[in-house]
Every structure is written in structure tokens, then in C-alpha cells.
Amino acid sequence: MAKIKVKQTGSPIRRTKDQRATLIGLGLNKMHRVSELEDTPEVRGMIRKVQHMVEVQG
């Protein structure tokens, strides 16, 4: 299965609880942290939910 790297670029301060939980589910909870994940529809949906706070690196 293909892998994608996701980097957190936005702060979870003043965000909703579900967006914070989504970042934690992606393995991100601090600025500029990078997480390598399987490229699945579930992960893509989580990325889409917090797309304003993350950057996909490939």
C-alpha cells in the first residue's frame, strides 16, 4: 500500500474538539510534526477534514 506524508502547518488553538481529535488520529499534535500514513480513503477523509491545518508532502 502507498504511503503519504502529512505535515502539520496550523495550530489547533481555537479549533473544535473534533478537529483536534482528527489531528491526534493522524499522529499530529505539534506544529511542523510529520507523520507517514497508509494512503487509504479513511486517512484521505481525515486529511480533508483538517486540510487548512496540514500539508501533504507526497
Automatic annotation (TrEMBL):
- SUPFAM superfamilies attached to this UniProt entry: Ribosomal protein L30p/L7e
Recite the UniProt keywords alphabetically.
Ribonucleoprotein, Ribosomal protein
Q: Its Gene Ontology biological processes?
A: translation
Instruction: Please report the stretch or stretches of sequence annotated as the Large ribosomal subunit protein uL30-like ferredoxin-like fold domain.
Output: 4-54
Q: Which GO terms describe its cellular component?
A: cytosolic large ribosomal subunit
Q: According to the lineage, what is the superkingdom?
A: Bacteria
Q: Which Pfam families does UniProt cross-reference here?
A: Ribosomal_L30
- One GO molecular-function annotation for this sequence? structural constituent of ribosome
| CDD domains, A to Z | Ribosomal_L30 (cd01658)
Record flagged with keyword Ribonucleoprotein: yes
Protein family membership: Belongs to the universal ribosomal protein uL30 family.
Checking NCBIfam families in the record gives:
rpmD_bact (TIGR01308)
Q: How does it assemble?
A: Part of the 50S ribosomal subunit.
Q: What is this protein called?
A: Large ribosomal subunit protein uL30
